[in-house]
Amino acid sequence: MQPHIDARRIFAWGTSFAGMYIVELAASDARLAGAIAQSVLVDGLAAAKMTPPARSVRLLALAVQDRLGSLLGRPPLYLPGAGAPGELAVGSTPDALFGQELMTPKDSTEWHNRVAARSLLSFSWRRPVRRAAAIRCPILFIVAEHDTMAPVGPALRVAERAPRGELHRSRGGHYDVYEGGESFDDVLRVELEFLHRHAKTPAP
Fold this sequence. Notes:
Layout: E1 11-15, H1 17-28, E2 34-38, H2 44-49, H3 53-71, E3 78-79, H4 96-103, E4 115-116, E5 139-144, H5 152-161, E6 165-170, H6 184-199
Parallel strand pairs: 1-2, 2-5, 5-6
Antiparallel strand pairs: 3-4
């Protein structure tokens, strides 16, 4: 441990798909002082069921093809991370392209709207919703009122079942928690208040 890091004040933060791992980490690592999961995906199976069956079959076929190719040393097959409704992409909800615009770096940072198809194979079986009761640290869930990417019901159940869970419903959709979205300022305020309260540091 670095001497300038207070081991008693380590918090985990994650958004969207990364929020899935935050929930798993909070349920398995008692050293955490707290955690924040925003626009959180907590049930991969429920999210997979939101995808139309025909598109699910096509995505699965590409994922398997990419995985088999990786065993042969072939380069990844990429899918767009965000696409318009009807396009073959990991996210093709009505607000997906809006989210892509918000998350694309405005500076010279190189960024590609793509995801390796093989990564989808580890997605649907991850269901941290089932571990909610094992979370012992304070955990804040930011759940959008109109999320079309991450199922809202399972996220609300985790917030309810986690012994020290806290819930904030953000305005708008999945991507409105990011800078430029309608809930960014409000979500930032709520998350900072949570951190100051549980880290026992004075608010500015």
